[in-house]
Amino acid sequence: MTDIVVTGLGITSALGVGADDNCTRLLDGRSGIGPMHILRSKHTHLPVGEVDCTNAELREMLFVEPDAAITRASLIGAAAMREALFSAGLLYKDRSLRVALVSGTTVGGMECSEQFYHDFLFTKEKNDYIELHDCGSSTDMIALAFPGQFDMVTTISTACSSAANALILGYNMLQMNRADVVVVGGSDCLSKFHLNGFKSLMILDDQPCRPFDKNRNGLNLGEGAAYLVLEREETARNRGISPLCVFSGYGNRCDAFHQTATSPDGEGAYLAMTEALRMAGLQPSDIDYVNAHGTGTINNDESEGKALMRVFGDKMPMVSSTKSYTGHTTGASGAVEAVISILALLHDFVPANLNFSEKMDSLTFKPVSKVKIGVELRHVLSNSFGFGGNDSSCIFSKIS
Amino acid sequence: MSIFIQGISQISIQQPLSEEWFDAPVIPHTIMSPSIDPDFGKYFSPMESRRMGVLIKRAIATSMDVMQKTGLNMPDAIIAGTGIGCIEPTEKFLTEMIENDEECLPPAAFSQSTHNTIAAQMALKLNCHGYNCTYAHRGTSFDSALFDAFLQFKLKKIESALVGSYDTMTENYFLMLSKLDYWKSDFCGIQQLRHSKSSGSISGSCSLSMMLSSLPSPQAWCELKDVEMFYRPTILQIKHNLNSILLRNELMLSDVDAVVMGWSGDRDNDDVYYELKEHCFKDVPLLWYKQLFGESFSASAFGTYVASVCLREGRIPKHLFFFPEDFEKVKNKPRNILVYNHFHDRDHSLILLSK
């Protein structure tokens, strides 16, 4: 097995457009969660993590015509994609490279479908957004924004672990030499459909979320996109690009417990993390930092916390959930948090788990509540869990 | 490592959980022909049955059926494809949200609405903790799922996998897509789908579950030799991809007994296949299947299915030839069949199956 390395990153989140802005705010401890400005829902009391750009601003930034049909999820995705391709020296592609795109989403075009649904059904004329409803079209629109860039494109939709699973397919494609470069990640915007869905499940906090806190009361939804450029170490060397880190292992396991709830002992999460460690050839004690899924719901943090205790025992690495900064970016969260984990690895800091005050009774550990700067990180693990028990973990390691 | 298709089960326009269509197909007479459901009583209690949407029921029924027929009960991986996912609960929640102006919404429909509900429910039913993933990439959702499984077999990560594709068509979605000319407006029988000059096809639903394993067995239908996907290729790139897939598998084009293609009766869709015939497959018999199974985001799964049944049976029935005169050309039992699929000429896939 050859090393699969990360050679480029792009991120658009409530912390800003671009890795620099995101990194600065993580270091400063300034959350992106706040009152709703862009999403037009009546539940304005719910805090959200919005990308602070209107669709018009995003269109301008990306040179998309004002009247061209494109969804917000695709716009946010294209912004992150442009940065990822640029940072890996791929924006003006060498035609001999086979470049694939694997993107995760769970919202797809829902943000537009919910606005135009009446038109979709009852007006005679065709509405261009019908074609953009499904998840695959969301990826397609991102790919089309970069003509000639991609030789293969696909979409994963495993709810909130979609983007993490995109990383996994990308890894496997590179090991099997089915591409020279795979751009992996995900993109999701806020929609009324998902806000109301999570609200109906009574798992939204009307305060900023408090992951791993005794008094946590749910999650805040967020939106965002992130992409990682993966390639074989040898390809990067031949292209003269220095790798940022190694994607050293992953685990994908199913909790097989309940459609929307997680098992009390976090079986799926435990299996995913142990599989990732096994694949990376690491011991639990080698992990310096865990970027937890940590949604802030009663159920997730309890079961993820238990799973972490089962994996790490009394040698718990530093743990934090950065959903307290970005909100839960659903289908994109696996990539958003992979990028944050890699930024932590590159700059030797551990982002804080904001809004933490009291330890949970059932857990033996506390999350990192203040940003830690100047800690040397070698291996970081990022968790992403989804409805239906789709649990995935990814490990990133410093270039030795 | 070799990968064998041990069995496939389907629910569609054709007789369910059987290959009766091979010699006695159901002929679709309308542009929205319904699927024929089996007796679900064998798989679910009346309580479960009431709670579950039809897509989940079909997905579990085809999965249970293929597991029972192959005797493989605990796959290492469950990988699903679906274009529009659990569209019924999605539409239900969306409509309720709009009608009730975001107030007093019950969570049931939302919980069932994510695309991965299908594969997750299968895992739950089997208590399967293995790899679990769902692809939702328009007309190549199934192809993507199969590609994922293929890579994991080759990397020796798995020894068995349940791979499938699942889509239903609702009245609302049908109506929406009709505005995009997805369906024939003047449909008068499946003969019209051959060499059609107009747009649109006929709609069909798909529930198809396939059991793959790396262990050879006398009951295996065929071998999955290769899967390749590409995006917006030029004809030159298609030729190149075809050559590399043949080369990798030590085959010549003359070794390919037939190519299964997604001819659907939609002019723009079929133009791509005419072009392929001219540039890549001039003398190879070409087969079709959407005239029997209809068009859907999951329809490409039936392409692999049809090819697998032909290899299992060692013959190709006359009704599957897109150009009827090709029937005379196939003298021997088919040994290698290619499945070519594309969606909107953007996503293309090539699958190679061998006896």
Number-wise, the strands of chain B total: 10
The CATH topology of the largest domain in chain B corresponds to Peroxisomal Thiolase, Chain A, domain 1
Question: CATH superfamily assignment of the largest domain in chain A?
Answer: Thiolase/Chalcone synthase
Strand content of chain B: 15-25%
Please give the share of residues in helix of chain B: 25-40%
**Main beta-sheet strand count, sense and barrel state of chain B:** 10 strands, mixed
What can you tell me about this protein's structure?
The complex is a heterodimer of chains A (400) and B (355). With 400 residues, chain A is an alpha/beta fold. Chain A folds into 2 domains: 4-239, Thiolase/Chalcone synthase (Peroxisomal Thiolase, Chain A, domain 1), CATH 3.40.47; 248-397, Thiolase/Chalcone synthase (Peroxisomal Thiolase, Chain A, domain 1). Helices cover 34% and strands 19% of the residues of chain A. Chain A is built from 12 helices and 13 strands. In chain A, the strands form 2 sheets. In chain A, strands 1, 2, 3, 4, 5, 6, 7, 8, 9, 12 and 13 form an 11-stranded mixed beta sheet that branches. A two-stranded antiparallel ribbon of chain A has the order 10-11. In chain A, a hairpin with a 3-residue loop joins strand 12 (379-386) and strand 13 (390-397). Chain B is of the alpha/beta class and 355 residues long. Chain B folds into 2 domains: 4-213, Thiolase/Chalcone synthase (Peroxisomal Thiolase, Chain A, domain 1), CATH 3.40.47; 222-354, 3-Layer(aba) Sandwich (Peroxisomal Thiolase, Chain A, domain 1), CATH 3.40.47. Chain B is 33% helix and 19% strand. In chain B, strands 3-2-4-5-1-6-10-9-7-8 form a 10-stranded mixed beta sheet, with helices on both faces. In chain B, a hairpin with a 3-residue loop joins strand 9 (336-343) and strand 10. The longest helix of chain B has 17 residues, at 54-70. The radius of gyration of chain B is 20 Å and the shape is globular. The mean pLDDT of chain B is 96. Chains A and B meet through helix 4, helix 5, strand 4, helix 6 and helix 7 of A and helix 3, helix 5, strand 3, helix 6 and helix 7 of B.
